[in-house]
Prior knowledge:
By secondary structure, the protein is mainly α. It contains eight helices and two strands, in the order ααααββαααα. The chain has one domain: Four Helix Bundle (Hemerythrin (Met), subunit A) (Up-down Bundle), CATH 1.20.120.450.
Amino acid sequence: MASASKRLLARYNEALGVFTELVHEVRPDQWDAPTPCTEWSVRDLVAHLTGEQLWVVPLVREGRTIAQVGDAFEGDVLGDDPVAAWDRAAAGALEAFGEPGAMERTVNLSYGRRPATAYCSQMISDAVVHAWDLARGIGADERLPRELVDFALEEVTPYADSLYKSGLFDRPLKPPPGADAQTELLAMVGRKV
């Protein structure tokens, strides 16, 4: 594995680790708590990220298309043990991205064929932003590792304007003067800090 791919995989592992720590902090009475993703509870948010990780194996390891996978990950992907479901999905995704040659592959995403490295980069950014959402939802420490924030800022900035147009993100906000990198990132994806 080339050094750039190794660094990307390490960053992905770190992002999953941050989210995993937060999932393990969720108390039984917090699964229905609201999050900054206004239509999602804590459980919905964890289910979203779990589903995202479940897609990695068929797309990266197996080279399948979205159509071939179909509705395999529709419905309740968390079951009776959301923490265990997350742990399994995260471990499977990390393993699939870490296989020899995985980062050199092309994956079939909903918007076309893309390098696995680009897919992994998007997954990192998604995990970083949603880690903040989860921390806010459960009242945990909201500070994210600076290296992950910087990575996500670099990843998201080129297409930030199109996020709101996709209908999946809130309108970008203007960060306050002198905002730190985390606040800039969150404002870019419509989060009020």
